[in-house]
From TrEMBL:
InterPro entries: TPR-like_helical_dom_sf, TPR_rpt. The keyword Repeat applies. PANTHER family: NEPHROCYSTIN-3 (PTHR45641:SF19), TETRATRICOPEPTIDE REPEAT PROTEIN (AFU_ORTHOLOGUE AFUA_6G03870) (PTHR45641). This is Tetratricopeptide repeat protein. Transmembrane segments: none annotated. Coiled coil: none annotated. TPR repeats lie at residues 30-63, 72-105, 114-147. Keywords: Repeat, TPR repeat. It comes from Adineta steineri. It comes from the Eukaryota. It holds the Pfam family TPR_12.
Length: 181
């Protein structure tokens, strides 16, 4: 476990072999790019991960319908890298694209959509847009997948974030009120 250089070597070898027999836009090649990106992400090399996720997205845009949920996931992966690198504007752009695709292609309680709302909330919180963060955290909690029990740890964490954001907004409204007076 955790032998990332070996994993990269195997993924690159497998990709090279498959690349000889597949067209450049074949989804299998995109999967290799995604897997290599995941390895770099796990190594903390977000810029390299981003470059492979972008290759995966380019492949997906050529081979998948424009509202295919897998495309949404590809946008989400890129958004995650920008988020990890602190570029919240770009992260938000990719998360919004992810959400737009998923809203068109998945049921309203699908786990990917639930996560998309949460990610957008995180970005807004980090950008200081607390009311928007609250709104998206609330959507995330409201659209929880049916597969999660009410006391699931992920759902509990998202409820805590929602409450934390609510308290921030209350504090800010009190501060604003006192500044006016």
């Amino acid at each position: 476990m955790g032998d990332y250089p070996k994993a990269l070597s195997y993924y690159e070898q497998a990709r090279a072999i498959r690349q000889q027999s597949l067209p450049s836009n074949h989804p299998d090649l995109g999967a290799f790019y995604n897997n290599i990106g995941n390895v770099y992400k796990n190594m903390g090399d977000y810029k390299k991960a981003l470059s492979y996720y972008e290759k995966d997205l380019a492949t997906g845009q050529q081979s998948l319908p424009s509202i295919h949920p897998d495309l949404g996931i590809l946008y989400n992966n890129i958004g995650n890298m920008y988020y990890n690198m602190g570029d919240y504007e770009k992260a938000l752009s990719y998360y919004e694209e992810d959400r737009a695709i998923l809203q068109q292609s998945l049921p309203s309680n699908h786990p990917d959509l639930y996560s998309s709302y949460y990610n957008i909330g995180l970005v807004h919180e980090n950008m200081g847009n607390y009311s928007k963060a609250y709104s998206f955290y609330e959507r995330s909690v409201q659209t929880k997948p049916q597969s999660l029990s009410p006391n699931h740890p992920t759902l509990q964490q998202r409820r805590k974030n929602l409450e934390r954001m609510k308290k921030k907004l209350q504090i800010l409204s009190v501060i604003f009120f006192w500044k006016i007076i």
